[in-house]
């Protein structure tokens, strides 16, 4: 009887210490993302990691840092900012509905950059920073150092440059820091939004680039998606799962739907301790993960076969 009570006490002590149930077996979680982190946002306790210190391009995940630098500057949110030729994407040739001269408030530009990954909006925000885009990028890198993101480097505010790089562990730090900004939480999780372009009478409708914000089974407080060919499909989120705030980082996911599929697999695993099936897996084995067949469409395209698209 005494031995039984000792074992029970040890079990609950371990649960409290880790913040996660002992039934979470990492061998039951197999992801299509090349790099991943799951951690308890409350205490920073790592629950799952896969190639979490590998430096990789991060695409539009960059815009979380862009948003923090904008908000740190405490510039007027209602100030009108106009898109210029310097905000056009000559690197990837990505499209935007914000035409030359399109004018929105700084707050509206920030919302579109976060929820819809609008590249010209992000570029416009940086260009209207004191000292211009050069000073803005320097502030981004200084902020990364201050947050302890020592494997992170930024060269542009949109994420279109493949030289914007980080690691899954660094991005987990970024998510926890960004979550302290109420506007980032609000804007990044806005499901849909209409903006009236000043002086034109034109009204533009935007949807969130992350479909999970409209999914009633998810409680997402912050999110950002990203995609360029060099980075693959990426997503970071702060979500309440099983009554606990969890940071999820998924980088370089194989296929159009895989980052969302991986997020669903992680949620199911955290809630039940069991795996969800997956349709296809990367050829490289994940030493700390395992799993089976998925709820999303099988993905046939390879990363190398994806066209160059906007950072999303």
Q: Please count the beta strands (DSSP E, at least 2 residues each).
A: 11
The major sheet is characterized as: 5 strands, antiparallel
Principal-axis shape: globular
Tell me roughly what share of residues is in helical segments: 25-40%
Oligomer: single chain
What does this structure look like?
The protein is an alpha+beta fold and 312 residues long. It has a single domain, classed as Beta-lactamase. Helix content is 30%, strand content 20%. The protein is built from 8 helices and 11 strands. The strands form 4 sheets. Strands 2-1-11-10-9 form a 5-stranded antiparallel beta sheet, with helices on both faces. Helix 3 packs across helix 4. The longest helix is centred in the N-terminal third of the chain and has 17 residues. The termini are far apart. The N terminus is likely disordered.
Summarize this entry quickly.
The chain has 312 residues and is an alpha+beta fold. The protein has eight helices and eleven strands.
What structural keywords apply?
single chain; 312 residues; alpha+beta; Beta-lactamase; five-stranded antiparallel β-sheet; two-stranded antiparallel sheet; 8 helices; disordered N terminus
SSE diagram, text form:
Blueprint: H1 2-18, E1 33-40, E2 46-50, E3 56-57, H2 62-72, E4 80-82, E5 103-105, H3 106-115, H4 119-127, H5 132-146, E6 165-166, H6 168-178, H7 182-188, E7 192-196, E8 203-207, E9 220-228, E10 232-241, E11 244-253, H8 258-272
Antiparallel strand pairs: 1-2, 1-11, 3-6, 4-5, 7-8, 9-10, 10-11
């Amino acid at each position: 009887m005494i031995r039984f009570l000792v074992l029970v006490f040890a079990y609950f002590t371990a649960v409290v210490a880790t913040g996660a149930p002992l039934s979470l077996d990492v061998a039951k979680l197999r992801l299509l993302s090349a790099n991943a982190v799951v951690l308890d946002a409350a205490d920073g306790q790592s629950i799952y990691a896969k190639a979490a210190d590998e430096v990789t391009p991060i695409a539009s995940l960059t815009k979380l840092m862009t948003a923090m630098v904008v908000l740190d500057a405490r510039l007027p949110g209602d100030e009108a900012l106009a898109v210029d030729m310097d905000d056009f994407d000559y690197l990837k040739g990505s499209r935007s509905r914000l035409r030359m001269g399109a004018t929105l408030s700084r707050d509206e530009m920030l919302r579109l950059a976060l929820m819809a990954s609008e590249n010209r909006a992000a570029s416009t925000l940086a260009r209207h920073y004191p000292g211009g885009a050069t000073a803005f990028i320097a502030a981004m890198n200084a902020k990364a150092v201050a947050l302890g993101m020592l494997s992170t480097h930024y060269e542009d505010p949109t994420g279109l440059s493949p030289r914007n790089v980080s690691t899954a562990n660094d991005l987990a730090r970024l998510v926890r820091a960004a979550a302290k900004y109420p506007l980032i939480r609000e804007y990044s999780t806005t499901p849909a939004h209409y903006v009236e372009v000043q002086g034109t009478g034109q009204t533009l409708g935007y949807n969130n680039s992350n479909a999970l914000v409209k999914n009633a089974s998810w409680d997402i407080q912050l999110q950002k998606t990203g995609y360029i060919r060099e980075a693959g499909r990426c997503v970071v989120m702060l979500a309440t799962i099983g009554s606990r705030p969890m940071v999820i980082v998924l980088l370089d996911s194989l296929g159009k739907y895989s980052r969302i599929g991986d997020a669903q697999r992680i949620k199911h695993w955290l809630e039940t301790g069991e795996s969800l099936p997956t349709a296809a897996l990367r050829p490289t084995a994940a030493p700390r993960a395992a799993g089976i067949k998925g709820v999303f469409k099988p993905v046939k395209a390879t990363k190398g076969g994806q066209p160059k698209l906007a950072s999303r």
